[in-house]
Amino acid sequence: MDFGLSEEQEMLQETLRGFVGNECPTTRLRELFDAGDGHDPALWSALSEMGMAGLIVPEEHGGAGLELLDLALAGEVLGESALPGPLLGHSLASLGVLLRGSASQQSAILPGLASGEQIATIAVQESEFAWAPRDWTAKLDGDRVSGVKTIVGHAALADRMLVGLQGGELAWVDPKGGGVEIEPMNGVDRTRPFATVTFRSAPAERLEGGQGAASRLTDAAAVLLAADAFGAATRLIDLDVAYSLSREQFGQPIAQFQAIKHTIARLATDMEPSRALWWYAAYALDHLPEEASRAASLAKAHITDRATHAARESVELHGGYGFTWECEVQMWFKRIMFDRSFLGTPEQHRERCAELGGW
Amino acid sequence: MDLEYGEEYERFREAVRIFLKGWPLQGEEAELPMEEQEAIFRKRGIEAGFVYRHIPREYGGSGQPSDALEDQIIVEEFFRAGAPRDLSTQGAGMLAPTLIEFGTEEQKRRYVPPALTGEELWCQGYSEPGSGSDLASLQCQARLEGDEWVINGQKIWTSSAQRAHMMFGLFRTEPDARKHEGISYLLVPMDTPGIEVRPLREMSGGYEFNEVFFTDARIPAANIVGQRGQGWQVSRATLVHERNLIGNPFMMRDAFNDLVALARSRQRNGRPAIEDPHVRQRIAEIEGYVRTSETSNLRQLTAAKRGEMLKAMRPMMMNKIFSTDTMQRIMECAYDLLGGDGVLAPSEEELDTWGRKTTSTGWVLQYMFSLGPAIAGGASNIQLNIIGERGYGLPRDLRRSG
């Protein structure tokens, strides 16, 4: 029994942290955030060179052949650094191809994704509360797909889209192949822009041959969003600590006041133990198939909920400054808003836990 | 990461399970009073090497090499079987490990074995009316006169004092020394003349804790553990053993399962309460905390097993407040599931059995009891100071004394 990270996994996180510290420090993050593109080509190609674009793609297709836990560990660092970029949707699109694609489809598609030369995204959510495979209504007629998807991350940037179809099937679409209308939405999280995408008899390729269930895709997404929110919340707690030590009132750092110290300690106690909750859920995706869905929903609900609380408290803790555009807290606050509301609210995931628990 | 225990540990688990086939006891033994049955089985557990593993054999334990995973397996399996394991009394849980570390050979031989069996019952004399969270400000005095300590003063919140044969406690023996350096750890026979125990009634209705008054109570000078003035360190040492730092989520899981069972058995709007959307939400939210605690426990065990405790220091210092808060959430939810039954007071008989979670009033009692851990053994507000200061580098509280 060993429920801890390997040296390689710790190294993966440290390497990524070092990279982000050099290539996207807070000053650069702020520029990207204000620009709102959620993308920096130089950053993406550097990440791809590190192997991040193909982390879970098997080595035979040019990837690193790692597990979903490794991807979630990278996701934690992305959350910590609010890193702009398409990695979330891109990785999930590769997972979809791995789950449902035939051997020849995998060989054709995955190498381009693993190298980062092609950027992919997922088009799954259809309305505010409709995101699960059983909610999908987009239809494939021959080799043409029709339907409307929303909150499609980095849609304008994507070379390919993984589209969820009625009956839990998946299709692979080239958005430049005609019949695809991309309407950018104005999102709060400016590190990860998204759009509504309308498919009108757009040319599409059905992924067929793989045995994986589409719910594995949304389960993996739930875990990655939980890891991202966890990373973001721990970053906010670090900011809270630093601010409360530097800000003085009544002649002393406000950290000296128990009202502040206890608030921070409570937020930390909400978050730090839950690191193990998403570790477990990520591990379950690859190793405990019977538990995986419930563990993923529980992690998404619990962690994004607690992270939301941490984010709101963090704004308050920074006083009037916390409510400004200038204060960096907002970037992680909004990252967490996205993690919470995309692909199922805590309430929906808790109801799913109840169902899967046979309640 | 690998959640399989592996062949070696599965063999160990199998051995524990085979041993546990002996519980409950059979035949004539099953006719004995439950306390005696438990004592018999506990003795067998010691012989088999599963009970009191951290206490050497010569003092009544089973003296097994320290192994966090084996410990975990034993806790899991004994819990599953409902079998008696190490007593969680003050004597077995607090005094015995303290004596093993700091006691004289004579003290270990005299006091540890009966504390482990429960034949000799101990109470803990720490808190005083003026010294709660600021325990080191304690004033209850012990003065050395010839070959005796003469004790004067008062202790309070002393659980089981009315039944205890002995007290281990902290007393001010060096009035001129600095606050923490003037305290000694003494062993006090409760039948010493000059000791008076007065029960305090709890809000739940029972009488479990007490005030203890000392008026020229004389005990032998040899009844000191460690050196004069070292009592503070002696009393802290057992708290920092890693096995005490790693949380035990089994009580919590048990209570959570009881909560789910309660929600299944109670009706709301003509259907089982668990089918009510609001109830489902609330219970699933609580499960987030319960699963967090269970998985965090696995992480801490791994850190202990790998010898990397520092990596899990933060979650470890959070265990007490996290489990306290989660148990309270469970009890608050259960309480609301009782509906109007929540106004009912527990019976005298239920007070004696600490309430069973099958009747409404049993839950009412548990609902009240769940407040205890937020106060006893380091109040939650103090836990938050520790987390903030030691875990996150926030400034220490202003301490105006000492």
State the main characteristics.
heterodimer, A: 359 residues, alpha+beta, Butyryl-Coa Dehydrogenase, subunit A, domain 1, Butyryl-CoA Dehydrogenase, subunit A, domain 2, 9 strands, B: Butyryl-Coa Dehydrogenase, subunit A, domain 1, Butyryl-CoA Dehydrogenase, subunit A, domain 3, 3 domains, 4-stranded mixed sheet, 13 helices, globular
**Tell me, what is the CATH class of the largest domain in chain A?**
Mainly Alpha
Strand fraction of chain B: 5-15%
Helix percent band of chain B: 40-55%
Please tell me how large the radius of gyration of chain B is.
23 Å
State the helix count of chain A: 13
User: Which sequence of strands runs across the widest sheet of chain B?
Assistant: 1-4-5-8
Mean of pLDDT of chain B: 94
- List the secondary-structure elements of chain A in sequence, H or E: HHHHHHEEEEEEEHEEHHHHHH
User: How many extended strands of chain A?
Assistant: 9
**SSE order of chain B in H/E notation?**
HHHHHEEEEEEEEHHHEEHHHHH
Tell me the number of helical segments of chain B per DSSP (H or I, 4 or more residues long). Answer: 13
Radius of gyration of chain A using CA atoms only: 20 Å
Q: Identify low-pLDDT runs of chain B.
A: none
- Which homologous superfamily in CATH is the superfamily of the largest domain in chain B? Butyryl-CoA Dehydrogenase, subunit A, domain 3
The most extensive contact between chains is:
A-B, 46 and 55 residues
Q: Could you name the CATH homologous superfamily of the largest domain in chain A?
A: Butyryl-CoA Dehydrogenase, subunit A, domain 3
- Number of E-type strands of chain B: 10
Shape of chain A: globular
Task: Could you tell me the CATH topology label of the largest domain in chain A.
Answer: Butyryl-CoA Dehydrogenase, subunit A, domain 3
Euclidean distance between termini CA atoms of chain B: 47 Å
What's the quaternary structure here?
Answer: heterodimer
Protein model, in words:
The complex is a heterodimer of chains A (359) and B (402). With 359 residues, chain A is an alpha+beta fold. Chain A folds into three domains: 7-114, Acyl-CoA dehydrogenase/oxidase, N-terminal domain (Butyryl-Coa Dehydrogenase, subunit A, domain 1); 120-206, Butyryl-CoA Dehydrogenase, subunit A, domain 2 (Beta Barrel), CATH 2.40.110.10; 214-356, Butyryl-CoA Dehydrogenase, subunit A, domain 3. Chain A has helices at residues 7-23, 26-35, 41-49, 68-81, 87-100, 103-114, 214-246, 258-271, 275-287, 289-317, 319-322, 329-341, 346-356; strands at 120-123, 139-141, 144-153, 160-165, 169-173, 180-185, 194-206, 248-249, 252-253. In chain A, a hairpin with a 2-residue loop joins strand 2 and strand 3 (144-153). The longest helix of chain A has 33 residues, at 214-246. Chain A is globular, with a radius of gyration of 20 Å. Chain B has 402 residues and is an alpha+beta fold. Chain B folds into three domains: 7-81, Butyryl-Coa Dehydrogenase, subunit A, domain 1 (Orthogonal Bundle), CATH 1.10.540.10; 122-231, Butyryl-CoA Dehydrogenase, subunit A, domain 2 (Beta Barrel); 241-337 and 371-392, Butyryl-CoA Dehydrogenase, subunit A, domain 3 (Up-down Bundle), CATH 1.20.140.10. Chain B has helices at residues 7-20, 34-48, 68-81, 90-102, 105-117, 231-237, 242-245, 250-265, 277-306, 313-337, 348-353, 360-369, 380-392, and strands at 122-125, 141-145, 148-159, 166-172, 183-189, 195-199, 209-220, 224-225, 267-268, 271-272. The mean pLDDT of chain B is 94. Classes of the chains: A alpha+beta (359), B alpha+beta (402). Chains A and B meet through helix 7, helix 8, helix 9, helix 10 and helix 13 of A and helix 8, helix 9, helix 10 and helix 13 of B.
